[in-house]
Write the structure tokens for this entry.
Amino acid sequence: MKKLRYLLLTTLLLAASTAQAQSNILGRNLFPEGTFDIFGESLQVPSGWKFPDPNDKPWQKGFRVDLVKGEGGTKELRMVNPDFGFTSASASIDLPPKIDRLRVSFRVLPKRIELGAPDPAGNGAGIYLRFYDKDGKSIQAAWVGAGQIKSTDAEWQDRESIFNVPTSAYRIGMEVVFRSAKGEVRVDDIELVPVGVTE
Ligand SMILES: [Ca+2]
């Protein structure tokens, strides 16, 4: 009887701590690297991010992805397309278990943007998300577009979207892209925040 009570108590405690762990995850940003600020003053590519090698084609032609210090005093991701084309930077993180829904948000600043031909994959700036299973296989992809941003909208804009997380998702990849457009965009404060957990 004593043993049973002990078992029951242990089970209850375990359930409570699991629920606690899940609720702790809710609302917490899983991707602090998305501010580009956690590595001090350096403008080097922060760990966790992959930027294209500026010595590779077509990056030699003036296409550029780097970090700059913005007017707000914090670092921002800068993407420059001197002609209609494509620039991107990527990062990925492991997902804590039991996340059911995820909010992805970021800020974007368009500068002198001209949009090219409509692209079914999304025009202008945005973020591709890809969920991967334990074996690294892509199981779902989604696009958070920043909309038809144009040169006249020279102010920071907020974008956010909420996604269901596939149950087999183990890792999430993010690719910030600027495509079918000419000009420059700045991106900052990318956040991944769990807004739902499975029971
Ligand atoms: Ca920043």
Q: What stands out?
A: The chain has one domain: 2-197. The chain has a mean pLDDT of 85. The beta strands are 49-50, 64-69, 75-94, 99-115, 124-132, 138-145, 157-164, 171-197. The CA atoms of residues 134 and 170 lie 5 Å apart.
